[in-house]
Give the backbone structure.
Amino acid sequence: MRAGRPRAPARAAGFTYLTVLFALVVFGLGAAALGESWGAASRRAREAELIEAGGTFVKAIAAYRASSPGSAKSYPRHLDELLEDHRFVGVVRHLRRVVRDPVTGNAEWGLVQAPDGGILGVYSLSEQAPLRRQPLQLPGALPISGTRYADWKFVAEAQRTP
């Protein structure tokens, strides 16, 4: 007989392997659940950013229209006109920058057009379903609801057209 450690009984030889395997399964399930909650939290954050960006556009378009010289009020023809309003002697800025759509990550927005070709509002081009189910009411904006982000139209209430 050799000197050294005695050998473990045959029935205990796979116990450590099964324990490690079970621990890996539990760890994997926990990581999957954590990943789902992080994903939902990320979507909630992007949705909140979309609401904030939409509210910013609503305020900027309303300010552009309200500051129109003369009695004929007009809407911007392009989003860039919100950045630099050249209708006055000095340059007026209604927006600092055109923000990216937080849901799609693109700088392109859908535009709600007025009959005369001006921009009444904006909306996301995403076809994803929003997490928020109840209608949303931003100050000074029409109620916002829909089954897709593309249905959420950010339009100022005073800019409603017949």
